[in-house]
Each structure stands twice: as structure tokens, then as C-alpha cells.
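As a warm-up, study this chain.
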Amino acid sequence: MLSAIAEAAWRLWNDALAVFGPVPPRVAVAAACLAAALVMLLLALRPRAANKRPGRSPADRVTLAFEPRSASEHGLWAGEDAGPPAVHTGPLGSPREIMARLEAERSSRVIAIIHRENMERQFLDVADLEDALTAIRLTPKDKPLDIILHSPGGHIRVGQQIARAIKAHPAKTTVFVPYFALGAAAFMAFAADEIVMSAHAGLTPVDPFTPAGPASAVLKGIAGKPIGKVEDETVMCADIARKMVDEAKRVTCELMHSKHDHSGVCRLADELVSGKFSRDRAITAEVAKDVGLNVNVRMPGAVYDLIRSCRRGHAHGASVSFLDYAPQPRSAALRERAHHAPAFGVFDSAIAHVTERAARPAVATQWLAHSGGHVPEGSVERAKSLIRRIEAERGSHVICVIHGENMESDGFSFDDLEDVLCAIVASDPARPLDIVLHTQGGNAFAGRQIARAIKSHRGRKTVFVPYYAMSAGSRISLAADQIVMGAQATLGPIDTQLYGWPAPSILHLVKTKPIEAIKDEFLILAEDARKIMVEGRASACELLQGSYSHDGSCAIADEMMSGRWTHGFPITATVAKGLGLNVSTDLPDVFYDLVRCFRHADGEDPSVLFVSR
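Now compare it with the structure written out below.
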């Protein structure tokens, strides 16, 4: 821009000389200084909206911190074959503004189905069904339909009905999955002409949930047990499970039949619905292509912006958003019925745990990512300054995952998954990545996807553990080129826990006791545990490859998830080195300080008292 201004000024000067004749040197110098001053003034007054950040309330608290960057602000598309999108240089804007921009760019109708804990609904329910069907009905028949999915699943019928409506739309249909679309939400992806996934996004298999457990686990778990020894409730659940799996397969075939030959459709149904894999298996873009889905990774930056924009407001919003229609407020009674709907044949297993949780208060998200609560403004600013200091000293991009009793989250959640993937997508892929972990663990699917995303980052990856990174946090540590631990810090085993029982212990039960003498519930859990252990070992080996030899990496994985230790066993730096992990204990004090920024009494006096020196 400066060169263009200089060239224009030079042409103007030559024209003036031609008209007015030679100019005295002093006048020429004065004119040049005046012109330069005007240019500098114009540049100083130029709007800098792209660098503005929303303010923070003194009531904020933080569980995950990074310096965010708007995906469309950087013009980011995921995938090596991505073409350059139109670069948006302004602030994120409201969801409606972003959707309007996306519709204009793609000449389509955009419908967004976005679930999270601070939205009106946390998973697919009957209110979402009404809103989505209304949006599709109001879409002109000749207009392409773009569905943006960000959901952990929910009601099986809701996912199937919306999917059928997508399938019936005459114009081209595209489903965008920037982060995840699990369980029942995956039906919508199956229905689309095209699926667009980010490099780190995941679908999951569909496995309907019964009171006895996932349908596939119920059927396989009791298969070898004499029917006379099977409890009456389990027999009834198995009957329903058979019907539900068959129905899910038939719906999958129905959704895909026009785009694939029948043998291909059956193969897809067997791969995605039959219970061949665990409910936590991530169907990445690469895996989806392998099983025959029409997938690409050209994700518009505006899609990331839309998901982030919905995190900022304090007020609840509808889960289904689309332009030129405002969903009517739901009565308290309807919301109550939807929230407490029975799980019997209704939910997919990916979302079952959500129905068991009490609803948490709505919170707002600001620019240190996940927020809401009682972290003082001064602590937030100190954390930002420490992050910038680390980044300046190490030339890296810093991502912090900090969980705790007086934080907004006690462990990894789907929101954490979104935050970390957002940070990685907005990172320079060649820039070193520093991940600060302070966590007891959490959601297994979220932990695995975060670990895979970190592993795929091309720059050097270092995990810093000042105090502890257990369970899912330990799995994420395996993705790093190096783990830097505090002298007394610990990692932990990575064996998955099922309803409070360690998977290795469940498998030990079925190996040591006659099957007819084992309770039905543990036979069902054992089938779940078997699949989870197989996939967990494979993913751990995958994370360790490249940094460690193949044989060595699988040996490390076997030690950490075989059940040799209890789930809370402290793996110190010495033990970790003995396993073969690349561990250092040269941890700078700034990382301790960063974690301590978020340690607050939250209205209560701490139990440990000391005078800071």
C-alpha cells in the first residue's frame, strides 16, 4: 500500500512540475514533509477492528487459555488441498452476521445446529427437531442447503428425522463438521451429498443406548451366557437393542442408497452402525473417506467463526440457528420434558452421560477461552502477560488447559475439545507448540481428539506439567516430542474408566469367573471395555510413533493402559523416564506461576496456608 501511495505522489509531483515549472528546494522539502505527515496521519486513523478484543468481566474465571485468532481473519481452511477463501479482516460479529456472510459467499441456505453447555440445549431434542424442520421447509427447493453441525448427539429419532429432511431436499446438500458431530448427529452427515470436515474433526459410530448399556454391547455381552441365567430386564433390553440396531442400519441405507450401490450401503451400515467399534471411536475425515463417504477438508473460515461467536454471549440462545426466522420461546414445561426424557431407546450412547448430569449455569466465553465464575481481572491480565512472555522467549504458541475445583470445569469436556482445536487451527503449523497441562483427566473422546490434533501439528510440540496431568491429560502428553515435568509432578495410567470401573479390571473379571456366574451388567461392560482397550492401545501407539520406535511406543502404551497400576497411580518423572518417555525436569518457574494465576479460594479460605517470599 505504501508503495502505491509513493508512486501516486511521484506522478502528482511530475504533473505539478510540468504545469508550474521548477520549484525551489526549500518548498519541495516542505511539501514532501507535509505529504509524509498526511500519510502517517491517515495510517494512524485507519480502523483496527481486527485487533479489537471483547472486554472481560471481573467475574470471569478460566479453564483453558490461549491467545485466540479468528479463523476467517487468517483466511484459514483446513487441509492440504484447500484453496484460499475470502479473508475476513473484521471482528467475528454476531452469529446472524456470520451466517449472512456465509450464505452470500456460497449462495446457499445455512442452518446451524450448535450444542454446548451454555446454550439453551446441550444435545439433540424435540425442540431442535421442530426448528430444523421449519428451517428446511422454508428453504427454496432450488437453493443449496448447508448444515453446520456441532453436537454430541442426543435423541435417535431427532437425528434420523432431520437427516431424512436433508435427504429429501432437491438441491445440493452439504454438512459441515468443524469439530464433532457424534452419535445421532452423524445421521445428518450420512444424508448429505457432501461432508466437509476439518482435519481434526470427528464423527462417531451410531450405537443406540438402552438402560442396560449400548445396544451392541448388550447383544454381544450376553451372547455366550445360558438364557436361563440372564436376568429378565436384560432379555427385554436385548430384544429392544436388536430392533434398534436393525432400524439404525435401515435408516443409514435409506439415507445413502441413491448415492451408493446397495452392497456399498450395507458395508457402510455395518461399519458405522453395527457396534463393530466403540462409541468413542473418532471417524476422522480420513477414516470417513476409507469407508466410502464423500468427504473433503475444505472448511470455510466463517464456519469456525460461527461456532466461536456462539460462545461469547451471556444469554441462552437456541441450538438451531438460521436467518429470517426466529424460533419461538419454549415453555418451561417443554424444556423440562425434553431434558428429562427417558433414555430407554431414545438416546445414542455418546450422549448418555449428559442426561445424568445436573444442568450447569450458563457462562460466557471471552478471549482466554472458557470463562465464567470468579477469577479477578488482575489474575487474567497476569496470565496473559505470562503467556506472551513464554511465547516471546520460546518463539512458540502457548495453549493452557487448566482444570480445578474452583475453575469452571473439573475435567476435559466437549467445550475444551472445541477450544484446543480452535487454537491449533489458528496456529502457524510450523511454529512450535507449547501445551501447559494441569488436569485430572475427563472425557475420553475429547482427550483422544486433542492428542491427535497436537500430534498432527508440524512444528515441535512440548507438554509442560507443573503439578499433574492424569488420565486424558497423560494421553495428550504422549503426543508431544518432549514432556517437561515439575520435580514432584505426575502423569497417570491411561486405562479408560467405565462407570467408575477400570476397563482392565472388568476384563479380568470375565477371564477369571464362569460366564454364567457373572452379572449381566458386567458382561455388557466387558464388551464395551474390550473395544475401548483395543482402540485405546492403537491410538496410544499412533501418538507415540515418530517420537519413539514402533516397538518401544507400543511397549510404553501397554505399560500405561494394561491395568498394571490403579488409575490414580502417580507416574513420576523418574518412572516416566523408565518407561522410555522423553522427559525433562528442567521446568522454568514461569509455568508454575501461570497455573497459580487461576488458583483462587472462590469465597472460601484455602486449606494450605503459606507466606509467599
